[in-house]
Specification:
Elements: H1 2-16, H2 22-28, H3 33-57, H4 63-73, H5 77-85, H6 90-100, H7 106-124, H8 128-159, H9 166-220
Helix pairs in contact: 1-9, 3-8, 3-9, 4-5, 4-9, 5-6, 6-7, 6-9, 7-9, 8-9
């Protein structure tokens, strides 16, 4: 009966506060709403910035490698370098490094391309670890805020003289739960964003590997 009454009163409190703005709800969540909100801003910034960076890295047209093959086969090394310089992408920089090493042993060319590829991969994965951290930390901060809110609610109840109003208890609980909702929301969005970006990076990496293999195969073709 007591639990049912608490739930009923919680619903009444929520209904009476329907006009509350998001800002007022955030204030009700307590001080831990500040790092949760900051985490959401950081997550959104990283996601948008990484999407733009990955889209830019994936701009090489399908005809790029074909054009490079044609120029290298004709012996127009400078023309191939100029073509690579026209594209600000990982694939273009890897191929440009390989072209600049033409005449060296094949293993040296492969090593040069691989080193550039590692640098480009590091650039693509920049700040993804922060996004993963937000995905894990935001729900934990939300739970911590809820626990603190519950402790404060029970302290208030303990300080009450006489019978405890169920409305007081339900109000404290619903206020404390705000941080959990906010933390879970930020965590879920950050987690989905992280997995989406990892998938996009993997596609770019596969394209880099395929392009480098094609270039090495070109150098191994009989003259």
């Amino acid at each position: 009966m007591i639990l049912a009454q608490i739930v009923t009163n919680a619903a009444e409190v929520a209904a009476s506060d329907e006009s509350l703005s998001i800002l007022e709800l955030a204030k009700a969540g307590g001080i831990l709403m500040i790092p949760i909100v900051l985490s959401s801003v950081i997550a959104i910034y990283i996601f948008v910035e990484r999407v733009l960076t990955i889209n830019k890295a994936n701009q090489n047209p399908d005809s790029f490698i074909s054009k490079i093959k044609e120029l290298v086969q004709r012996g127009d090394i400078n023309g191939a370098k100029i073509t690579c310089a026209q594209f600000d992408t990982p694939v273009a920089r890897m191929i440009e490094k390989g072209i600049s090493r033409i005449g060296s042993p094949l293993k040296n060319i492969e090593a040069s391309i691989e080193n550039v590829g590692k640098i480009e991969l590091f650039k693509l994965e920049k700040n993804l670890s922060i996004l993963a951290t937000v995905a894990g930390a935001a729900p934990m901060m939300g739970f911590l805020g809820t626990v603190i809110g519950m402790v404060q609610a029970f302290i208030s109840i303990a300080q009450e003289e006489g019978s405890v109003s169920p409305k007081l208890l339900s109000s404290g609980i619903y206020t404390a739960m705000i941080t959990t909702v906010a933390g879970l929301l930020v965590g879920i969005i950050a987690y989905l964003g992280y997995n989406y970006l990892v998938t996009r990076v993997s596609k770019v990496v596969h394209k880099m590997e395929y392009s480098s293999i094609e270039f090495i195969d070109l150098l191994q073709e009989p003259k």
